[in-house]
Amino acid sequence: ADIHDEFRFCRYEVFPKFRKMKVPTASTPVDQFCLGFAYLRGEGHGSGTAQWFSKAAEQGNPSAQTVLGYHYEQGHGWRTLLKR
Fold first, then answer.
1. What is the mean pLDDT of residues 2-16?
2. Residue 61 CB contacts under 8 Å (≥ 6 apart), including other chains
3. For the packed helices 49-58 and 62-73, what is the interaxial angle rounded to 10 degrees?
4. Which distant-in-sequence residues (6+ apart) come within 8 Å of 42 by Cβ?
5. 18: how many CB neighbours lie within 10 A of its CB?
6. Are 39 and 49 in contact (CB under 8 A)?
């Protein structure tokens, strides 16, 4: 499995669950990654991209670590992700 598989899983399996919630919450690293991804795509209500990716990354989610690493490498950093 790679990051694209996780993106697809989020989009087709987890996003529909989030859409049904008034305020989406995520307790597992995969759900946290998916919620961060939803905000990054502009599908979330509000902001929280960096916080959700960070929570997932701290718990060892490799996809969240990859996304955060990419944004830091590109010089986007935390503040850019906070705006999303």
1. 86
2. 29, 30, 32, 33
3. 130
4. 84
5. 19
6. yes
**Amino acid at the residue 48:** G
**Six-digit token string for 16:** 């529909």
Three-class SS of residue 43?
coil
Q: CA–CA separation, 47 vs 50, rounded Å?
A: 9
Amino acid at 41: R
Rounded (10°) CA dihedral 35, 64, 53, 80: -110
Q: What is the pLDDT of residues 55-75, one digit of tens each?
A: 999 999 999 999 888 877 877
CB 63 within 8 A of CB 8: no
Please return the burial class of 5, using the count of CB atoms within 10 Å of its CB with bins 0-12, 13-18 and 19+: exposed
Q: What is the rounded distance in angstroms from the CA atom of residue 31 to the CA atom of residue 44?
A: 13
pTM of the model: 0.74
